[in-house]
From TrEMBL:
Lineage: superkingdom: Eukaryota
Stretches assigned to the CBS domain: 25-87
The organism of origin for this protein: Desmophyllum pertusum
InterPro entries xref list: CBS_dom, CBS_dom_sf
Name used for this protein in its record: CBS domain-containing protein
């Protein structure tokens, strides 16, 4: 894949113009996300996402540990392929490959190239 110098330019660009660039993750005022338990059904998760206008939800254990994410697209894809049903627990659709953020690091530390 040819990037025509875009990635190199991005790496060398002065990001000081972005007020948030050096802010720590913990300093961002974010609302607590709506989460679901792994025992919630796929259909219930779809209904929650449709009602709230979300396309993804974090799945947390009873103890409050993040297990992963589910997306509307992934759930629908798995249903169409027959791997899950609307009655299946959402735990069967959890996407576990996600990046955990450490609250003490700056946003610049999470840039993706």
């Amino acid at each position: 894949m040819e990037d025509n110098g875009f990635l190199e330019k991005e790496r060398n660009e002065d990001h000081s113009k972005f007020w948030w660039w050096t802010k720590k993750v913990s300093s961002i005022n974010l609302q607590t996300p709506l989460t679901v338990l792994p025992s919630v059904t796929c259909q219930q998760s779809i209904d929650i996402m449709n009602k709230e206008g979300f396309d993804q939800l974090p799945v947390v254990s009873e103890a409050g540990s993040v297990m992963g994410m589910v997306t509307l697209g992934n759930i629908m894809s798995q249903m169409l392929s027959g791997r899950i049903t609307p009655e299946s627990p959402i735990a069967n659709s959890v996407y576990k490959n996600f990046k955990r953020l450490h609250l003490t690091l700056a946003l610049v530390d999470y840039r993706v190239y």
